[in-house]
Amino acid sequence: MKSRRGGREKKLELSDHLLRLRQRLQVALSLGIRLCDNKVKRWQCVDAEVQLHALRAMTTFIDCISCANMQHFLIKETIADMLVAFGGILLSENEKILSQTMKELLKLLNILGTFMRQFDMVDVIFSLSRLLRFLRSTIIIPSAIALNDILTNLGRMRSKNYIEIWKAVESTNAIGNISLALQDYELTYDYFKIMASLLRNILWKLPSSRYSVWSNNILMVKLGQRLSYPDPSFAFCVLQIYSALALCGNGTVVLLENEELFSKVVWALGSSQDYNLRVQALKIFQHLLRSQEGCSKLSGTYCEAIVQGIVAAMAEWLLPDSKKGSADHMILVKEACKAALMVRWPGNHQLYFWKYDVDGVLLEILTGKTCTSFNQMVFQPEEVVAEICDSSTEIRPYIWDILGWIAVHCPEDFVPKVQGKVGSLDALINIACSMAYKFLHKKQVSFFRHVHEVEPVSRAVLLMVFSPCTYISSLAKTYVSEWLRICDDEYIGRLLNSLMLISCGDVNPLSDGLQTVINLISIACYSTLTQYQHLLVHEKGIEILVAIIERCLNTEMHINRSSVASHLNDVSDVKLCCWNNTEDWEGGDLVIFYCLQALSQLITFSSLTCNQPKVISRNYLLSSTYGGSVAETLLKRLGGILDNAISPGIRWYSGYLFSFFGLYGFPSKLGERMKAALDENELADLQYVLSNGQCLTVHSTILMAGCPYLLPSKEAFMKDNKLHGGSSKDSWQHKASIRHEVKMSEHINSITLAKILEYVYTGFIIVENDLVKPLSSLAKHCGLTCLSQMLSRRLPRWGTSVPHCDFSQLLDSVEHHISHSENIKVPVGWEALHKLVKWFYSGNLPRINLDCNWNNMSTSRQLNELQAYVELFSLAEFWLLEGGLKEESFTVILSCLELNQNLSKEIINFASDLGQWKIVEAAAASIVPLYPKLRDAGDLEKFSEAVVDILRSEYVRHSQKGFDENE
Fold first, then answer.
1. How far apart are CA 634 and CA 595, in angstroms?
2. What separation in angstroms does the CA of 548 have from each of 500, 516, 557, 592, 629?
3. Is the pLDDT of residue 7 over 50?
4. Could you give the CA distance from residue 967 to residue 950 in angstroms, rounded to a whole number?
5. Strands, E assignment, 824-905
6. How do residues 309-326 score in pLDDT, each as one tens digit?
7. What are the CA-CA distances from residue 918 to residues 877, 891, 892, 907, 927 (Å)?
8. What pLDDT score does 572 carry?
9. Residue 823, exposed/middle/buried by CB under 10 A (0-12, 13-18, 19+)?
């Protein structure tokens, strides 16, 4: 051990020559470096001779250091001092000094490489950013190169470091100066390339910079024009910038809305284009297709061209001239596979992927054989799997994701094309099931080498057995059954025992998240097989799954897919911003989701029952008592899930399980409030007359939003002077007294119609078993597809949104009224009134998106937006409004105040004028650290005495316990 340690120390020893150079350098640097009051070193000498002397000393020292001695503490100390000197000397106005300084700085940066992460680079970044204003100077090019080099090598930045670097870039208007440079048509390609590369790097590393670029209309137009240049190198630089801008959700919207620009990006995807252009176009599409909204916007004119370009890039895996195995080729295929993950969203792009034989392309990439040669051989899955595992590639996880998603979005009656002995899709399904068996059951040594592939292939099998496509689902179940025959029933027992440890609390599911997820995927797959369903129920599978769900909800333990699928995290330093709704349909609670999936298959074979008369309200489902039977525990947990904003997939499967207890739909706060309208006849303007003479009165406005199929023709209404005619002076009593009568068919009875109306009003109903069939038929004829599917107990369709009570579309119709009076005086402004009405009609309060648009608003505009929520908070208290309006408003207010102390100062007086002291106290707490400055500057005078007392007491309280560093 001593000899080894001694050897390391010898390697770190510095030569006498280097030590002498270091000593001279330290003397030279000491002439300009001073220790400031905050104990931070700064270069504070503007004498040109001193600066040149320091530069000469740094030159000789830099020429003698290398990566070998970089870690020596003396060298590190000296480099830190040199960076301080560079940061100060670069503030000089002397172009000769600046030129020499840049030359030496670039040499040092080249030696440092990623080692620069160990040093404070903020001052150097500030000085370099400041030099970008000299657009026509020779110094701008080396400044841009150096700044780009620093940003490239910094890697992922800590929050504090990020803030300091962004302040340095923002304060020098670096983005604005780079934008001006890129708009200059006289720039050479080299100049343009350097500036474009720097801008791309800034956009990539600093999300706060993206707004000023995508909101710059002139720059965006000029960049679009560069795409048309004959030299593809210009287009490549522009596409790099677009790719970085697409990391911002708002920037993506701008790109999608510019059809001319977007068409050029699609053009770059073509097979005849330069390789680099295609790779960048694929990267752009990966970002554009990150959300379902983005995918739906692409499902128009260019959808087929995009899919064709993606599949063509994937298919180059086996082209003769593709130089298979080269790094560049692998990048193209990998980026194409990542872009093909757009199949996770539903849409007409799914059909185009099948049109261009995506299954055949996936098989070619997987096996290394063309479909033609593959179909001529005798298919032996074990041999194919062995060959696949021997030629592992990082692309395979994406293949399994693509396979799973195209299967789960496949139409029910889909039948693939089969050429040769084995169809491509058949072979893919068989290989996936074989590999899942090899990984999960045999647990061979190769398992550890392919751990990154275990979750994707297992999940692909799960999606295939749950596919709505009869062909895919039945084939996958067949292959899974064949492999399971090799295992004994004890395997299922061992699997359930491992899950029982989690349900009892003996094992934390987060301790080995991957194994937990794989075990649950296995149970969900086996639950679809008839020969194992009774076994799983008999072995207490349902009780175990319910207990796991209960534990996860109690302890808020979450496992999202990115934590168990490593291929989803292959870009370590990328930072997204301003994105919403990017989560997959199953959401971030995989444990709960897979438990619900398994329960959806097993509950039919159970004897779970509940006391239906008890289930009369949302309050019962949300009660805090969870004792009783497994059925009651499950029922209440499902109610809690449906009441919260959990992922659509989890809510859909919870709703599906609800149907086995006679509960259909999705209970909500608005639906609970709308129950009262069912029994309110004063404003009802429509009356259904049944064949037995019984009548049901309803409101046409509510039917228009929830079930227009039940409305009579508009002409019939006009005839009775309901929709048109009648002055605004007509009383509501007069209007309601003349109801339009609609005679119903003798096949419709009052009970089924009443249930349909209850569902339209509230979104949730309780149905007895003998009423399910006639109600399902009527729901189908009324266009209530979701209700009809739930009554028929059809599994949820992957990717579908959750239906909910929403009557906000009525706000667009001035012909309809629900209010008792035509004019209601509301003590709030227009913005607050608009949000209040939206909340009344939809149950959802519009929120402020705390994105780059908000961050770049002036404080006065932010104040105007936030005042509306303060008014709503006050109004909810004044009108005694229930339903969470007050709580939701306060949550919005708090989230905004945390981001802007100036906003807190402005909102205090407005809130105090309304007597909302809870908001005043929250705002005061956020600006407490500023109290001494406000006092010394006399700014406290604009506050009332009561507010000043609150600020003073808060400051005293915080002083006693100590202020947080961030404050």
1. 12
2. 8, 11, 10, 8, 15
3. no
4. 18
5. none
6. 999 999 987 665 555 456
7. 12, 12, 14, 12, 15
8. 56
9. exposed
